[in-house]
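Here is one chain, start to finish.
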Amino acid sequence: MSIPIWSSDEFDSPVSPHIEPAYFDKDLDAWVLSRYEDVLAAFRSSALNIESKRPRTAEEDEGMNRMRAEAREALSPAQLREWSEVIVPLIEARLQALPQGRAVDLLDSYLRPNCLDLAALVTEIDPQDAMRLQALARPVSAATAEPYDPVLRAESKSVMPQLEVCFHGKAESLRESGFVALSHTLPCMLANACHALLQSPRQWMLLHREPGLAEQAVEELMRYAGLSRFLGRQAVDDLILGGASIRKGDRLILRIIAANHDPARFTDPNELDIHRRGAGHLTFGAGLHACVGANLLRMASVAMIRPLVATFSSAVLAEPITWQGGSRFQFPVHLPVMLRKDVVSST
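Its structure:
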């Protein structure tokens, strides 16, 4: 079976994502959906599940539903506010340490340590253990970025038992899987968002002048530069999507980046526009397949991007970007930037 790769879906592709009606790809042995309306319908469908080598049992479905309910309860608005009150001063302190006039790696000096602080807070581990567990979890993140590599899958599987015994939070999704998401996936997502702003200096300046637009800007950044290129699903019943007759057991590939750049849904989809309203992006899924941690990721994104852009009036890349990751998502190895604050006149 081939690895699903569309060069037009790469973050720095010079051409727009190719969007077309649903079709069956023999090499991928899967239905491919790229139109916004088709991917949205797939996310809303109860006839699709996460890919599995065997059908899930009723008990497994019940356990999955229970886990999602626990996560929603654990991620209540009150809890998010409480975490925000703790993490924002840490972010502000790290922000003040960022230099002007010389290159600094925004990923290693700002995004990763902030995300690691948040990961330790949310998963209730000793902050002194966070860096050790972050290193231990690295193979899990690598296997998520490239799910078709058997070596990475084996390495990920081998470290999971070591991670599982380290987390004891109330909600299962806020234990080892939550730690991996916050300490590894979140900084990758934010690095792509910051890179998008660096490539659009006018948008950076607009947000600098209007930091109140940060929440709206984050939604646009998730649409424009969302991390996951695609997600896999499997039909548990016969259904029709985008005019395609899909049978029980069929595999589907949902091209998230393509759907988020569909001109039938978004005006000027290949332009970053922080004033865009009602984007309705699919980066965090939708409907029955919505990411239960989406509001936590949104809170964290705003908490880190808003003060960064409010503090610095501009930022430029200090050197070309090298990308790493796999077929599912890629992100910068480093994000070296030169930051500048507004010059205040003395007259």
